[in-house]
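Fold it.
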Amino acid sequence: LQVFDDEGKDVTPHPLFRSDPNTVVPRQGKLLASSAYFGATGSGFLSSFSMHQTSGVNGSLDEIVEPGSRQDTAVSLSDVQVRQEEIKEWTKEDLDRRLDIYLTETETIWILDMPSVVVSVESEDAGRVLDRNRIYVDICKNRPGNDRFVEKMMQTINGAAKNKEVQCDKIITEDKGMLVTSWDLYDSFNVSEIEPTSKAEGSRATTGKSSKSHTTKEHNQTMLVSSNRGSTTSSLMISESAVLARIHEEEECHSEAILTSENFQQNLFFMERILMENIFQPKLAAYRQFPVLIDPDVTSDMSGTVAAVKEAKQEEHDKEKKDKEEQKNAFVDPSILSDLNKTPEEIVPPRLERLWSYICDLTNGHSVSSMAWSKVNPDLLAVGYGAFDYKEQKKGLACCWSLKNPMWPERIFRCEHGVTALDFSMASPNLLAVGMYDGSVTIYNVRSCNDAALLDSSESSNKHTGPVWQMRWVEQDRGATGDGKKERLICISADGRITEWFIQKRLDCIDLMKIKRTESEKKKLPGEKERKREALISRLAAGMCFDFHPKDTNFYLAGTEEGHIHKCSCSCNEQFLETYRGHKGPVYKVAWNPFSTDMFLSCSADWSIILWHQDSQTPILTFSSATAFVHDVMWSPKSACIFTAVNESRVEIWDLSASILNPVTSCFANPRVKFTSVLFAKNTDCLLVGDSKGEVSVFELQNLAAPNNNKV
């Protein structure tokens, strides 16, 4: 076959390789092994073969034609199976021979195949494609409004991404700059130019008499340069002072932001608690009746004090052990045993040891009117500050103190009027009820840092018109109605009413009892004429105090300004069940005995304390140890025979099993200070006493063994 161009020249392609007809073509199993056969001149062939092998089409070389032969011999890799020993070793002479290599085009390799969506009308699949297109058009027409077609979306699952964050200290950047306007430059230049100019004029006037004209010109030029230097220096001084002032302001703002930040406040709070624990550790240990730890770094004086405390506790332990041994001898007369117990000189008498005081600058000068423990947290104490006298009235305070910080209260509630009574709720321990001198009742939430009142009685039409002298949350059994126990807030006021308050959307109350005045019983002498009754300003007597029975909360006692004590019932609000007459002045406090529930105490402004039995209207015992008002009295929570009382001059501890004439121990108030209220601590032998200067002192009762009997 020959190929001719337009000019008639023979342009038939010649084969690139013509094998020698005398040589035998070796059949090889692997073409890579034939690289030695072809040598350096066969590199084109190997590259052609590598393209054949990569394309995967037949995997063979198309043709290798020997020179001088017109037959085309095809070599296929499938037919090539030659052993290793048949490979001919070439010599240097063979390398010098001329070899012809024929290159042919391989089949097309499709790297990207995108089939066409267009079909020829003359193709075999044209009819089938037309039918499919017709069906698709019908589907599109019937699709709108058809329930059989629902649009759905699919989303492939993406690999879960991992977010890695690195935290480092915040890099604080500050941009500092200063803006100088043209008028600032002008003013500073003029201010600096006035003084040098005046100096230059003076110098020119002095030197002008003995100098020439050119000297004057040089002097003027020199002064002008000096004035320019002076203006530059003054402007720099002004700019530096402005920069320093601005830096000082920024530092103040930054320090103020640090001091007011929440993290800083919280860190200060924790640090304050740690310092308080370190400072008051021995006193808090004594309060909780824990052993006092000895610090190895303390001084000799402190170690002596600790040794004395340990010695006193050891003596107390020996005394208790001796009492237990003596109680085993039941055949001995108790009076003889009491005499024997009093004879030894080793017995340490009871005493009050002062531990610390709750006082700060905020409460200094405010009289302590009432105190109450939290029903849930035995370390949380609420203290009300307010004056009892009308002439000394000022704004009051209600503070919540914690044992963890005796130097500053945890919560401070400022009141418009003096606080006269307060108490914690049992059902909702976060609620603190506060009664004030103007008759208003307010409830605060101690969990909130805000000192705003949660509820108040300002909108109540039945609010008190006189001071609220006492208030208390009382749990009353509602078993008859099936509601269980229900907590009520009870208040007594100087307007002669005992009220029950309801907590709803607002505070409102109903009258539990109106305390009517009672005539004093005076014996009529024989032959004496009947006197006319004095006209009363009010038909109601001012209420001063109350206390509910510890077992049956349906009954309660109410003390009045007349000196009478009325026994009342919640079921009857018209009349009193009993009236106890014994005091000659206002009754400041009544208290049921928690163990012997038939007995109760009362204290009055007539300098006396009276022990009553509820079945007798005649006083059983009267205690009077000082000529001063007795403001408060309270039974011990551990013994039925021990109670404490405070008058204006001292606090007293009475033990009825030891003496009914004198208190077993007492502690006097500081000069010009009056004691106002008293409270036993919970779960410990300690006593809290409030005074007229706003100080709540904590005392430890030492060497006071509580009797085992539960009756007075």
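Residues 25-87, 198-235, 299-306, 326-340 have pLDDT under 50 and may be disordered.
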